[in-house]
Write a structure and sequence with these properties.
The chain has about 100 residues and is mainly alpha-helical. About 70% of the residues lie in helices and about 5% in strands. Strand 1 and strand 2 form a beta hairpin. The protein is elongated.
């Protein structure tokens, strides 16, 4: 499915960039793409994919943190944080959408 979507996207981009029809054809393709993206089925699939990606990210992060390599990385980060100014110690977790201070973006 992903391969087909990438192929169609590439085909559409190539057509738009190579087309002599110009802006009119571009707007037509853009409107079609927007209509497809806003379809409830597509939005539901995107939501499911995002939830699954977040879940896999969290599971991987937890596994890494509980492993020996994760413990070693954490220890190295702690020792490096001791050497940094206080203004640079807040780490950001961009995928989870929050930083170590608990602020959500």
């Amino acid at each position: 499915m992903r391969g087909k979507l990438m192929f169609i996207s590439g085909l559409a981009a190539g057509f738009v960039l190579g087309s002599r029809a110009g802006r009119e054809k571009y707007e037509e393709i853009r409107a079609s793409a927007k209509k497809v993206w806003e379809h409830p089925t597509v939005q539901e699939a995107a939501g499911v994919a995002q939830a699954q990606a977040t879940k896999l990210y969290s599971e991987g992060k937890d596994k890494l943190n509980s492993s020996k390599v994760g413990e070693k990385l954490h220890a190295m980060a702690d020792s490096a944080a001791d050497k940094r100014p206080a203004s640079m110690t807040a780490s950001t977790d961009s995928l989870a959408g929050s930083n170590s201070a608990g602020k959500t973006y």
